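ARCHIVE CARD
Drawer: 12
Card no.: 0347
Subject: one protein chain, sequence and derived structure
Cross-reference: see card 0346
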Amino acid sequence: MTNLNRRNFLKAALASTGSIAVSTPLQAMTRPQLPSEVAFEYGVASGDPLQDAVILWTRATPVDANPAGPVNVTWELAEDGKFEKIVRRGSVATDLARDYTAKIDVRGLQPDTRYYYRFAGASTLSPVGRTKTLPEKGVEQVQLAIFSCSNYPAGYFNAYQLAAQAGDWDAVLHLGDYIYEYGAGGYATETSAQIGRALPEDNSGEILTLTDYRKRYALYRTDAGLQALHAAAPFIAVWDDHEITNDTWTDGAENHSADEGDFYSRRAAAVQAYYEWLPIRPPMGETNPQIYRSFQFGDLLDLHMLDTRVIGRDQQLQFANYMDKEGNFDTRAFSLDVASPSRTLLGEDQRKWLRKTLAKSKGHWQVLGQQVLMGRMHLPVELMTSFYQGGDNKLTAELIGLKAASLRGEQLTEQQQQRLQNAVPYNLDAWDGYAVERETLYQQVREQGKNLVVVAGDTHNAWFNHLKDNDGRMVGLEFGTPSVTSPGMESYLKLDHQSAMELARGMSALVDDLQYCNLHQRGFMALTFRRDGIEAEWKYIDNIDSTEFAEVDSHRETHQLV
């Protein structure tokens, strides 16, 4: 088929739609419609690839500010970027009820195949996107780019741009905090006006309503880096807390108060906007917050995307509740509460689903895509207390020195040993705050003999953990991705570059199972899976204050199967 200009594309789409295999739009149409005057200012995206299907996405912004009814766009999918080998065409309608977003579930495709796609209005063409179906068999390698925590006022999404330029990804995993809910003057907005990332007047408050959430997604999708990566590869995404509000749990959130209205109404609005603006195939429909689901990359890798936030999580414990007025920590009371067997991060239904899914999964690697760190990250109580009071570099260096001496085999006094052994979890929002459920999962993985890999976001820093059970037996590996723009530990502890590097080395000594961390740089993580092992590479950028940037650092870790 010859290359089509916009006019010929529209004529061909309308003439041939009825004669091709019918794709399954999420918002079905019974017959093609003439396309409307629309703009594609938010780009295109694809996601949730299967061996024979993929979701295509765009937003068709009406040129008429007050359209009389639905708007229509046409779309096409091709085997080449010039659209000379068209494999599917169709049309889809959207309206204000979906915020003029459009998603098509294109089925009947070939496995492990690169496709190109675009949309058209009456007088406009969208950018061209690339996507890829999952492989079915004979898979020797899978490459994933992994992201989390992109805060618009904090800076430009250059990490997305780097990944769009860097590789031919089988998929992009987004582990949450795709948007942030805070208003102007809130978290990580200090330099937003100076760098040209201030929130607009009509969306400058904390977002609470469906209109608020939709406008925030629209703002984020104006970023050139995010548009570029969405157009470059299919996304597989889950939310974290900020797509709703900070430290969300099943029945509430830290950043939600009674004067902000009903929490469940806010959550429903957030979920609806997420499903509208992300190229996702909701497992239970677009009003149901159940988001956990699985993907099979042939027989090499099974990916299970989890929800550790919304549908099952018990409320987080707070260190402040165990501190007295003098700043002393009640270790005994805390230890009893954190070890409660009833505490859950997943909820019963998701936990049962994961157990059954892992049991029947045949992939060489079993990968859990989820939000929060799973590895045991315990730090001395006095160090944690100092962190919450702004940090004490002298104390930190002293404790790191004691641990280093112990690792060298030097004899410590009983008091020195006690200082190191009196440790608590660094982050109660993570799996450390739900330790019994984690141990249950570890036991299941060991019994089933699975090769477990966990990927995590949330912390804004990079991590590589060995996952070990309570008896010290190796269960799996965990790789944590840094943030796209959200500030990390260097911000909370006011660390310069050198101090952050020194603390990172010290953390790897203090935390027994921690192999690597980076506490101060923004970027993303690439994982390459092969039969005989895994390679992780963290890629860091030098600037988020403008769109001018360079990759300045990287770090690699490899794990070979014995």
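Annotation on reverse: Residues 9-22, 24-31 have pLDDT under 50 and may be disordered. The longest strand covers residues 551-560.
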